[in-house]
Structure formats: C-alpha cells, structure tokens
Input
Amino acid sequence: MEHKQKIAIQGNQGSFHHVVAKKCFKDDFTLVVCETFDDTVKAVLKGDADQAIMAIENSIAGSIIPNYALIDRNDLQIVGEYSLSIHHQLMALSGQKIEDIKEVHSHPMALLQCKDFFHQNPHIRLVEAEDTADEARRISEDQLQGLGAIASQEAADLYGMEILAASIQTIKNNVTRFVIIQSKGQLIAEKQINKAALKFILDHQRGSLAAVLNVMSDCQLNLTKIQSLPVIQTPGKYAFFVDVTFDDFTHYEKARKLIAIMASEFKILGEYAQHQR
Output
C-alpha cells in the first residue's frame, strides 16, 4: 500500500490550513491536527508529520513574523507555497438570524479582518479564540444558540452550519500565503525552482543593505518580500528575510554566492516553485 503523506496543520478540520492542504495534496494525505504553530513544527521535527503547512503572510495584516522565526530557528526548509483567497463566512446553527447572534467567536486575525461588518452590527460581542473552524465545530456539537463563528465555507459544510452572511471581510481581495515546510528529504528539482527564501545578516555599515539589493538587481532577481527582525544577541543589528523570484537559475546562483560573501551570516530557507494564482 502506498504511503500517504502526513501533513501537519495548525487548526482543526475545515480551517484555512486544511483547505490549503486539500488544494496542494488533493485527498492523498493524512491530516495531523495541531493546536499551535509550535506544535506543528514539533510534529515535523519528531517525524510525526512528513511536512507541514504554515501561514506566513497576509495581504491585509502583513508578515506573520513569529512563523519566520520558527522556520529559521528550527532549520526547516520551505519546499513550496500556496496563496489562498480568504473568504470569511459568518455562520451559526440553522434557523437563526443575525439579530439573534449575541457573540461571535473566532481567531483574532479573522475578527480583525471583519471589523467593518461588526461596526455595523454593534449588538454582537466579539470573542477571541484559538481557531476559526474549531469554533464552528464547538457551536455545532454543543448546539449553542445565539453564538456565531467566522470560518471557511468548508467548515460550514463540514459541521452543518448555516451561513448568515458571506464574505464579510472588510477588504474583499484578502489573500494569505502559506508555505509547505519539512525538516529534510528530497529537494525540488533545479529546473522547477524559480523562487527562493533567504536570510542574511549584514555588518552595521552604511550602504551594506543597498549593496546586496544592487546585487539582486544586477543578477535579474525580483525582490518580492523583505522583512527585518532584530538579532536578539546583538542589539541594533538586524537579520533580513527576503523572497526573490527569477527566470534563470544560474542568475540566482550567482547572486546567492555573492550575497553569501557579503553577509556576515547567510542561510537558504527554501528554494521552490512559485505558486501562480
């Protein structure tokens, strides 16, 4: 019997992480449910999961910085990505109206992204929770009247919830980028690679970052993301996390070698195929 990949996610069945797992692996995987991103990473490191899916940035809220740190600190490897359009659905037990809902429970990020809708419905109290889909499951299983959840359409279908208001996110073009991570194993074939995630630390000298950016430009790399994090051991010094795309791997390879020379510390977090939406 062929081994199904074990894929770890933060959140329950019906969560957006679960949606991405189904998009990337179809039905050919076994889901490993974890409460936190730290638990997700531990599942990969311990071998309880072959790979994990982790949200890394949102088009509204920006980078999820702790997840960058988790990938870096645990020497995990990014082997793929998926950008998902996020549609937040307000759901509750069937037979209710929005006027009947006293509280809505969901992840803080989901509540934040729907704040305009709730400004228009001030009678609803917002309650932060660990996971979007898990709140839908809890309301369904415990038959909690007067409570609503914000979660995916998949969660509503899975737990038999009724959609009271669809796509209530304030900004309709709301996209979250997820990365697929693993601790070791087969690398992506070079001919398929057109994106890379890099980390480097530069000496605190004038123009050092500009020099690295010039190298990227000269080597025809497209900088799609740059994020700085302080180096805890050295106040005033920063680590830079960058994503670059390219058409020619040899150009990227040249830039990679030059940046490694210029940086006081250099690390490849992943080389993979860019997801085309």
User: Anything to note?
Assistant: The domain at 5-86+174-182 is CATH 3.40.190.10 (D-Maltodextrin-Binding Protein; domain 2). The CA atoms of residues 138 and 224 lie 39 Å apart. The first helix runs from residue 16 to 25. The mean pLDDT is 93.
